[in-house]
Amino acid sequence: MVSRSKSAMIGSTLFFAALIPGNTALAQDATGDEAAARDEIIVTARKFEEGIQDAPLTVQAYDEQAIRSAGISETADFIQLTSNVTLAESQSISTSFLTVRGLTQVRNGEIPVAVVVDGVLQFNNRQFVGQLFDVEQIEVVKGPQGALYGRNATGGAIIISTKKPGDEREGYVAFGIGSGDEVSAEGSFSTPLIEDKLYFKASGRIVNREGYFDNITLNEKDDPYFDRALRGRLLWTPTDDLTVDLIGNYTRHNGRGIGFQFGVESADDASKPFESNNEDRGERQTNGLSLRIKKDFGWGTLTSVSSYDYISTLTRADQFPYTMLANGVGDGAPFGDGTQSQFTDIEGFSQEIRLTSPTNRRFLWEVGGYYLDWERFISSTTGLDNGGGVRRIERTPFFDADTNPTTTFFADDNDNRAWAVFGQLSYNFTDQMELNIAARYDEEERDQSVSPLQRSGIDGVGEPGTEKSQTFDKFSPKVTLRYTPAPNLNIYGSWGQGFRSGQFNQDGVAAVAQREGIEGVNDIVDQEDSESFEIGFKSDFFNDRLRLNGAWFDTTVEGQQYFVFIGGVGAQ
């Protein structure tokens, strides 16, 4: 990963107009209780409820009806429907590249948005892509949200809310089929355990697909897909002013990995079969548990959100011997075909506490704090391929094995701690004008310990046992002014800053990059700072049948992070 010490300017103008028959689920409309009474979408992008057309920022929302109508069942589905947002999925389930307003995710780097699921802030990019089921609403907020959501929210925020259990015993089961011999099943069951007090819900989705592409060497599909996801929820409301929400989730994925094949003349023909002699596979498992407690004191609401998450991923496949080619040996001789793999083992605990004012006031406020402690182990390997298959390598390499020995092993433990304090003030001078000032201070400390088993294959590069430590911090303010000259017209402007945390490359990568003539690569990747201006309007005409929204934004990025491939070690 590269961190360039220069500025990047990203500017765009977006206009959207639509004929709207009635209250469409893809629409954007008014505030709080008033908006709810008019059957309009309510969003929580600013951490309090307001109508989407009144929210002074660019947000695209999908409610339950829109999700069902659009057939949204996984992350990529709603991203495809969202302007100025793209998602590229490649190599494996845990490798994705999200881009929002020109700010993009890099491999093994932080995602450029804050992702909040049922009030819990995800802390790792490998949690993002997956199945969506029993979902109530999705909000995609564009533009820096560092003042509200902190680290990595340089491009915006994605807020996903699943359906809560209620007073009625209810459920559903749905089945589907698709191309690639795909079959899927989804279901949910909800019931009250104690009337008006305790509720339970269980939901799940499973997708099994044989695949699209043939491997003519192994005589099987090269890209199978088998994904399982379960979620359980216990909601307790002992009093009218206290809510306790406990959610547990589990996912397991087995599918394709990197998809490389050795010795093929051209891949231009999309129908060309795969010829690899090894299975190309990727795996991911996640476990999560969160507890959200809300206490309404009348003058304010205290919210505590605690969460624990575990993530494990493994991808393995054929690999081209880039080292030999880079050294002028030609087609990879004497090693010929090779293997590669990457394993990650991640676990983290987070705690957020915030105190929020009632929303039916002219003056609104919020204060809070956040703490995150997480660990990541990562290993990246290359190996010889003499017909024994791709070895499953996690923490221990096989340098001296007779069959498919390991040739390079980059591995390190990362111990990270982050904390933040935040707050916002919002004042409605009149019914037509509002000023919002938000700010957040984030500090993150990262430590890296290189595995004593590390071997780079190049003398003096990536020494085993090396330790590093680095601290990243940022004060992120945001100021927003909203003016509503007419009930159907909202004009707003905002200025804000944000940052994407720095991190470590795997030790030794910088030396290899320098050896290969690639500049700008360091073992320590600097943080990425951004500053953004936005001016926009939201309007409705002809009794809400015509909607015209527009926004101009300009974003400046300092130290933008990039990913580059370094062939010198046959890996990234």
Explain this structure:
The chain has 572 residues and is mostly beta strands. It is built from six helices and 32 strands. The strands form seven sheets. A 16-stranded antiparallel sheet has the order 2-31-30-27-26-25-24-23-22-21-20-19-18-15-14-13. Strands 5-11-12-9-10 form a five-stranded mixed sheet. A three-stranded antiparallel sheet has the order 6-7-8. The longest helix is centred in the N-terminal third of the chain and has 7 residues, at 64-70. Residues 3-31 and 323-335 have low confidence and may be disordered.
Our count of helices gives: 6
Share of helix, binned: under 10%
If classified by CATH, what would the architecture be?
Beta Barrel
Q: Could you name the CATH topology? A: Maltoporin, Chain A
CATH superfamily: TonB-dependent receptor, beta-barrel domain
Rounded mean pLDDT score: 85
Class in CATH? Mainly Beta
Helical/strand content category: mainly beta
Q: End-to-end distance, in Å?
A: 9 Å
Overall spatial form: globular
Strands, count: 32
- What summary fits the major beta sheet? 16 strands, antiparallel
Strand order of the main beta sheet, please? 2-31-30-27-26-25-24-23-22-21-20-19-18-15-14-13
What's the number of structural domains? Answer: 1
Strand content of the residues, in percent? over 45%
Low-confidence stretches: 3-31, 323-335
